[in-house]
Design a protein that fits this description.
Layout: E1 3-7, H1 16-29, E2 34-38, H2 44-48, H3 60-66, H4 70-73, E3 75-76, E4 82-85, H5 91-99, H6 107-113, E5 121-125, H7 132-140, E6 143-149, H8 154-171, E7 177-184, H9 191-204, H10 217-221, H11 229-232, H12 237-257
Parallel strand pairs: 1-5, 1-6, 2-4, 2-5, 6-7
Antiparallel strand pairs: 3-4
The protein binds adenosine-5'-diphosphate and magnesium ion (MG).
Residues 12-18, 44, 128, 184-185, 213, 215-216, 219-220, 223, 238 line the site of adenosine-5'-diphosphate.
């Protein structure tokens, strides 16, 4: 049975997609089979693994709304062990269409059900909102991985997100846990970033990964080549940070399984 992890934060631009793509690729590189599901109509995770969102007939939208079989929509990528269920602008319609449906929180869970034994890890890249798509991800996941950018309102945003996670736990997914918090786009020369990082660690203790993702040009450039950072420049500090995060992620999974 796969570990199903939602990468979520209602704030845009904090590194959800960069983390989803690079963590997925880094876990695959360690020999596990990974399915990345793009849940953002912007399709950035899709293009980030080299698939043109505009060219697609079958996407996560067709699974959620048109009852397509998830197994038929999965695509392979250039990274051995990494597959993707892509997304494109069609998914924007799902936000609206799902709202009027009974059991609307559970469409993604039902979509994944038939394929979850085929993977070690399933990563859900959420859109920057706490709308019905993110709720579907939180309902389908066992845990939430939260990327946090160390800037002024980070802690407020984090508190709000954790409140939403608590509500989802109470109403639809009692076993949901926090997988971990990862500090992204970190710049050690910036004193505010250092301060926020200390606050987050002070509040959330060992829920915060030791691995910190630096602000790094490889991670910013790689998407324009349709490749995860580790394929574009493995030696870069950004790629190395995601490899290190993947090791922590895998070690945590092994510990929980014991
Ligand atoms: N560690 C990093 N270093 C440099 N640029 C980054 C880093 N992480 C993300 N970015 C860039 O910041 C922007 C927002 O990141 P993204 O992962 O798309 O955020 P989100 O999915 O939360 O909206 C993108 O242009 C991305 O390439
Ligand atoms: Mg994104």
């Amino acid at each position: 049975m796969a570990r199903i992890v939602a990468v979520a934060n209602q704030k845009g631009g904090v590194g959800k997609t960069t983390t989803s793509v690079n963590l997925s690729a880094s876990i695959a590189l360690q020999g596990q089979s990974v399915l990345l599901i793009d849940l953002d109509p912007q399709g950035n995770a899709t293009s980030g693994v080299g698939i043109d969102p505009r060219s697609l007939q079958s996407t996560v939208y067709t699974c959620l709304i048109k009852q397509a079989n998830a197994g038929d929509v999965v695509q392979s990528t250039d990274i051995k062990g990494l597959s993707v269920i892509p997304s494109n602008a069609d998914l924007a319609g799902a936000e609206i269409e799902l709202v009027s449906l009974d059991g609307r929180e559970h469409y993604l869970r039902d979509t994944i059900q038939g394929i979850q034994t085929q993977y070690d890890v399933i990563i859900l890249d959420c859109p920057p909102a706490l709308g019905v798509l993110t709720i579907n991800a939180l309902a389908a996941a066992q845990s939430v991985l939260i990327p946090v950018q160390c800037e002024y309102y980070a802690l407020e945003g984090l508190t709000r997100l954790i409140g939403s996670i608590e509500r989802v736990k109470e109403s639809i997914n009692p076993n949901l846990t926090i997988e971990g918090i990862v500090l992204t786009m970190f710049d050690a020369r910036n004193s505010l970033a250092r301060q926020v990082s200390e606050q987050v660690r002070g509040h959330f203790g060992d829920k915060v990964y030791q691995s910190v993702i630096p602000r790094n040009v490889t991670l910013a450039e790689a998407p324009s080549y349709g490749r995860p950072g580790i394929l574009y420049n493995m030696a870069s500090s950004g790629s190395q940070a995601y490899l290190s995060l993947a090791k922590e992620f895998i070690a945590h999974g092994e510990k929980s399984a014991r």
